[in-house]
Amino acid sequence: MPTLLLVHHTPSPALQEMFEAVVSGARTDEIEGVEVVIRPALTAGAADVLQADGYLLGTPANIGYMSGALKHFFDGIYYPCLEATRRRPYGLYVHGGLDTGGAVRAVESITAGLRWRAVRPPVCVTGAPGKADLEACWELGALAAAEVADLAETDLARALRPADGLPEQSRALRPAAVVRTKYGACGGRNATLRPR
To answer: Where in the sequence is the domain holding 36, given as residue range(s)?
Structure first.
């Protein structure tokens, strides 16, 4: 079964709300066949990352940077996972008191080095998360789960494709496309998927 790994550092009530919304989206009944594994950043390791097909990352913005816990996670997994996890999808949510830019830049710098690909722009919230912020977190979780399901479906289709090279199943029928169709396309750094 495809696996989505959620690695988080959740020290505040605001981040707890965001975390719960992301988990709810990742575990939505609309996307079947994806196991969501949750690990605190201080306990997640290379084995967790290597066993997963995609990632969700959650962090506070601390003094203009990601949390020390998430940095510790990246320090431990970077080289062991560098080659094996290229092109895997990931999503990021960040909460800050005044600004999230430094934390986002730091995470994006590391994920670029790992050659992971973002499923959408990060969800960045300053202050108390509002309804739209929590919807964006839910959508982030759902889209990441859909991407993981999509990858598994694509791999299965390739394995089952006859030698005559018939075309793959239409992308419109895959889980990630269903989520995008239902909620619309992403645009801009703070855009959210909205039901049509």
So the answer is: 3-183
